[in-house]
């Protein structure tokens, strides 16, 4: 597994886009949010067959998803980021994100920062 860390700083109130690249044909993609000490929660389910983005019970109007098949990428857009958006974000090719990793958290004491770890099931720490 290869990790590529990207550090993006975002001030509260700005818009951010988290991107996840994939290879091959997949039926659906998910974005999960995980707070420290908690299990992952599914934010968005994106069905590739009809490009339908399904929100979940924890999705707010500030969270939107987009599938870009040409670039084999799925994006999670968060508008007007807030401090409570600070979490670990997972991108998965199938609904298999489970567990509670204890080494990928970042506590924020200054303007919101975004770190993305890119790999087969990609995760982003905000």
UniProtKB/TrEMBL annotation:
A GO CC annotation given for this chain: T cell receptor complex
Keywords: Adaptive immunity, Immunity, Immunoglobulin domain, Receptor, Signal, T cell receptor
Keyword Hydrolase assigned: no
The keyword Signal is annotated on this UniProt entry: yes
Domain Ig-like as annotated: residue spans: 1-109
SMART domains in UniProt: IG, IGv
Pfam family, one: V-set
InterPro entries, A to Z: Ig-like_dom (IPR007110), Ig-like_dom_sf (IPR036179), Ig-like_fold (IPR013783), Ig_sub (IPR003599), Ig_V-set (IPR013106), TCR_variable_region (IPR051287)
GO biological process: adaptive immune response
Superkingdom in the source lineage: Eukaryota
Protein name, as recorded: Ig-like domain-containing protein
Organism listed in the record: Oncorhynchus tshawytscha
